[in-house]
Amino acid sequence: MAKIISEVSRTFSEYLLIPRLTRKNHLPQNVSLSSPVAKFKSGESSRLLLNVPFVSASMQSVSGAEMAISLARRGGCAFIYCSQSIEQQAAMVSRVKSHKAGFVQSDSNLKPDNTLRDAISLRKKTGHSTMPVTHDGSRNGIFLGIITDKDFWEFEDNLDAPVSQFMTPKENVVFGVYGITLHEANKVLRNSKKECLPVLEKDGNLHSLVFKKDYFDHMNNPDELLDKNKRLITGAGVNTHDYKDRIPALMEAGIDALCFDSSDGYSEFQMEAAKWARTRYGNDVIIGGGNVVDGDAFRYLVEEADVDFVKVGIGGGSICITREQKGIGRGQASALMAVCAERDRYFSETGIYVPVCSDGGLANDTQIIIALAMGADFVMMGRYFAMTVESPTPKVSIGGRIYKPYWGEGSNRARNWQRYNQAAEGDSGMKFEEGVDAYVPVVGSVKEVMSVTMAKLKSTMCNMGSVTLKEFADNAVLTRISEQSFVEGGTPNVISLDKDLPREV
Ligand code: MZP
Predict the structure, then answer these.
(1) CB-count exposure of residue 257 (10 Å: 0-12, 13-18, 19+)
(2) How far apart are CA 156 and CA 241, in angstroms?
(3) Per-residue pLDDT tens for 461-470?
(4) pLDDT tens, position by position, 118-127
């Protein structure tokens, strides 16, 4: 007969935190949100630490290159979606990795006989207004000069004239020689009052560009998540079907972390794929398994599949109808607590800590806070990031408000039937949907949205007498709430200007 777990499946909104003693050092400015992604032995440090415990979901409507750049600049990490061709996904990863490293490989280059019209169309294509001119138009060709949009007037100058007539020729360009440090390069930029410093090899070939704006960007984003070569960190989703081709392409592109994008990761398919990656790349690969909702599945992925982190959540996603369609899943709070308990047991037995990611179903900032208090090392979110200007979808106006489309990876629109184990030999595609096609309001940039959430999180951590996420989870005391106390937590006894009264126009 079937076994029935006595504990009811619970969600985050059923809990509240009870404050602990706040000491004088428990101030938001003392809080660190650093969190491990890859497993590590007691006393050692993780191969990858987030500066902010937020990652974006591997979904078409969430995590493209722009999201990856923006999120890494704020200290988190995007998992670029895998429901696209291997080449397209690897190209997105390359775009993020080459975005800025202090020394940027130029991807907008011209030949001297290219026309101004060519320069304008290149600028439109890449969005870069500073374009080096090399002898053959390649990024590492012999450097001849540089042209920016300040060097010509698009509506006045002859657009058929060659760029060589408008560029600043090499003899008038301030440049650095390869081997110069970033610190020295920034000093040259400062002293020469220039915006961009080309760095040339000894033989005159262009090596890279250093931008003044990148220095300011870096100073304004102290949480920026960088690899050892000062490139932005990014992750990518993978599947258990084409992993033998996809993972090598992503590794080649410089990926930092991978995760299986699967609604049910407790499978031999995932175990085989993860082991294949580990055998081939050893500890150079960081790979997350999942999704799971109980301790047995956590153990399996850790012991049999040798994954670095485990993702928790089936059916809680805002666009997800897996529970309804297939009857599998678990309340996200119960699932997370069960998996975190197993992680802690595994740690006390082996001395190996395997980070846990709570994936999906976080409907507001409070739920993010509760998930971290319950022991999640980091959270993966779709809807939260889909609502930002950096998500890859276009804005649409509905009834005078601005929205963006947001759809599940198991929806007909994404057609990611591989994610949902609907891929049988000779099968032509999906038979039923597990996700919906929806809209979410646009709420601002990743920076704006995250700064509010982080302010709330840091403030709560101080209420809980903690300045690290580990202390936060260790100190957390939670209480279950009744429906009535949930209502009491709102503002039921006053007329709210925001919710209950029409606004004056
Ligand atoms: P949310 O943050 O929008 O609530 O949930 C995002 C998560 O939902 C993803 O990270 C993924 O695990 C899951 N997801 C994505 N597509 C579907 C679907 O089509 C889904 N059912 O459940």
Answers:
(1) buried
(2) 55
(3) 999 999 999 9
(4) 999 999 888 7
Check if 47 is active-site: no
**Lookup: tokens for 188:** 């040259």
Per DSSP bridges, beta strands 378-381 and 54-56 are parallel
For a mutational test of ligand 1's pocket, the pick from 260, 357, 385, 409, i.e. the residue with the most ligand atoms closer than 8 A to its C-beta, is 409
From 77, 82, 419, 462, the catalytic residue: 419
Task: Return d(Cα 460, Cα 449) in angstroms, integer.
Answer: 17
Closest C-alpha among 382, 376, 359 to residue 292: 359
Pocket-forming residues, ligand 1, beta carbon under 6 Å: 57, 59, 263, 291, 313, 317-320, 322, 359-362, 380-384, 408-411, 434-435
CA 77 to chain centre: 3
CA of 438 to the centre of ligand 1 (A): 12
State yes or no: pLDDT of 505 exceeds 50.
Answer: no
63, 292, 320: residue to mutate for ligand 1 pocket, most atoms within 8 A of CB = 320
Residue 4 has pLDDT above 70, yes or no: yes
268: three-class secondary structure by DSSP: helix
Q: What is the 3-state secondary structure (H, E, C) of 22-49?
A: CCCCCCHHHCCCCEECCCEECCCCCCCE
Query: Is 285 within 8 Å of 306 (Cβ atoms)?
Result: no
Angstrom distance (rounded) from CA 276 to CA 279: 5
Catalytic residue flag (residue 77): no
Q: In this structure, are residues 128 and 211 in contact, taking their beta carbons and an 8 Å threshold?
A: no
Can you tell me which atom of ligand 1 is nearest the CA of 436? 19
The model's pLDDT over 430-452, given as tens digits with 9 standing for 90+, comes to: 788 888 899 999 999 999 999 99
Bridge partners (DSSP) listed for residue 380: 55, 359
Type of residue at 18: I
Which residue in this structure is represented by tokens 């400015």?
A: 29
If you count them, how many residues does the chain have?
Answer: 505
pLDDT bucket at 323, cuts 50 / 70 / 90: confident
The Å distance, Cα 262 to ligand 1 centre, comes to 10
Of 82, 196, 320, 340, which residue is the catalytic one? 320
CA distance 252 to 390: 25
Before 291, cis peptide (omega within 30)? yes
Residue 188 CB burial class (10 angstroms; 0-12, 13-18, ≥19): middle
